[in-house]
Write a structure and sequence with these properties.
By secondary structure, the chain is mainly α. It has one domain. It has eight helices and no strands. The model has no long low-confidence stretch (mean pLDDT 83).
Length: 193
């Protein structure tokens, strides 16, 4: 059932994890190296990966004998690490610097947009939100990703380094809070009254 509150929550969580605004410097650097970034191709490839993981992620987990709650807790830890990375300005998840040729799919679609953090978050969200609302949240984020990819130069000029840094830290705090909530609701599903 479509729930606008869930869609908003999912969209904000994915926006924080994908961190497309925080990735603008990386995208600009890749554009300089590769010459051109195919925004449509990158967005479509990332979308296919996210939707496939939304639909089939649980099946993949069951092959390994892992429950959604277990994966949600692991996902909460990754989301926590991403949030800490954003707030502290450290780099825990290092991108592959040699993967710049043909920069539309690798590394922009994967792992920059639909990386391990995003895919983990999508599956983690299934423990909290309806699948249709997650899918709508994914599509809304893909639209935003496409717009950002198309306008990185303009955004770089308008936000400046300080503006991008402030956004990154704000979304880091949001991610830490989300990670704590997901961890609590899956590690301690029933509170003792």
């Amino acid at each position: 059932m479509i729930d606008f509150k869930q869609i908003l929550s999912v969209s904000l969580i994915l926006f924080s994890v994908i961190d497309i605004l925080g990735s603008i410097p990386i995208i600009i650097n890749l554009r300089k190296k590769a010459g051109h970034i195919q925004s449509e191709k990158a967005t479509l490839a990332a979308g296919v990966l996210m939707i496939l993981f939304l639909l089939g992620g649980k099946t993949i987990l069951s092959l390994f004998g892992i429950g959604v709650e277990d994966f949600a807790i692991a996902g909460a830890l990754i989301i926590f690490a991403l949030g800490a990375e954003m707030i502290l300005g450290i780099e825990l998840f290092k991108p592959d610097p040699e993967a710049s040729a043909g920069a539309s799919i690798v590394p922009i679609a994967f792992p920059l947009i639909a990386g391990a953090g995003t895919l983990t978050t999508i599956l983690t969200l299934k423990a909290e939100f309806d699948q249709v609302n997650i899918a709508i949240g994914i599509v809304l984020n893909l639209i935003l990703v496409y717009v950002v990819l198309k306008s990185t130069s303009w955004l770089e000029r308008k936000l400046g380094k300080t503006g991008l840094d402030v956004l990154r830290r704000i979304f880091g705090i949001i991610l830490l809070s989300i990670a704590v909530k997901i961890f609590k609701s899956n590690a301690f599903p029933m509170e003792i009254v």
